[in-house]
Design goal:
By secondary structure, the protein is an alpha/beta fold. 36% of the residues lie in helices and 18% in strands. It has helices spanning 9-17, 50-61, 82-88, 90-98, 151-155, 157-175, 186-203, 222-237, 242-265, 346-356, and strands at 19-23, 28-32, 67-71, 105-108, 128-129, 132-136, 139-143, 206-209, 284-286, 296-302, 305-313, 329-330, 336-345. Strands 5-4-3-2-10-11-13-12 form an eight-stranded mixed sheet. Strands 1-6-7-8-9 form a five-stranded mixed sheet. The radius of gyration is 20 Å and the shape is globular.
Length: 357
Amino acid sequence: MRLHQKKHPHLERLLTTAKPISLGPSSKVLILSDLHMGNGGRRDEFKRNSDLVRSMLQDYYLPEKYSLVLNGDIEELFKFSAESIEEKWSQIYELFLRFEKNGFLWKTYGNHDADLFEERNYRLSRYLLESIRFMYGDEVMLLFHGHQASILLWETYPIVSRMVVFFLRYVAKPMGIRNFSTAYNSRRRFAIEKSIYDFSNQAKIVSIIGHTHRPLFESLSKVDHLNFRIEELCRAYTTAGPEARREIQEQISELKTMLDACFTEGKKIGLRSGRYNNIAIPSVFNSGCAIGKRGVTVIEIDGEMIRLVYWFKGKQGRRFVSDRNDEPEQLGDTAYSRIVLNEDHLDYVFSRLKLLA
């Protein structure tokens, strides 16, 4: 298919220059993005979930033989120096490096950690890339951070990044001003996702990104999945018996409460729908981030399956209910649990993509 060169030049370049990696039926890959690791101080957003990340890597993904892709913005270089980050989170870096024994370790860069290419002594320098092309048979999954979809950000990055670093380190940080990034801007977030969605559909590939901090599965946001789940339950209600109807009513009531909470929080969590046209084409997946108040979201590729997974401590947050009605799985004797929010067979994903795109 002929791509629109003027519309997505940077994304087309990523597809062309990406490092190819073949996936087989036994391949297991963890995709983690947007840790925003800092120096361990008050303004370090990673600090809240650092023990959760350490536990899930060490006690679940390493023993389960997953390879690891760190998909951008792992370090927060807008606020902190690379040296202070590596010194504070040395054990986390050691965990990252252990994944190479399971198959591979790669790290793409985002807009917050792109300057690592200039760090001579960076511990993960040999694993640093801009994009990865997973080959699943004849199909392609392109992994990149996602900031490349913003032409303004990409073409003005050297100048803009230095201005942002100066503001965050020397103005916002001392004054306690919040980081004004794409992740907190609903309109910009939606525009970037839609650009990647359009490109992926033209190329008939799956794109796996981070950057916007909003988990997406098959191009759909949590708001979309809640609406679809409510619709499914309404249809099931018409043919259900009395007891089943009571259960369906309770489920719908809980889903409506969560949906109301999404709209109440509004732009803070991305009120906009993830649907970019009338038919949802499953071409964009987003691993979310590791700095959420309620936990961490990741993407898993396990053989022929792809999953959006939520890790959390204590009671499960209302924002995250499994679309597969799965129960949380506790991680050993820890206070942490894992739940599959959604999953699908990759063959089904690519079949829909080819038929609908």
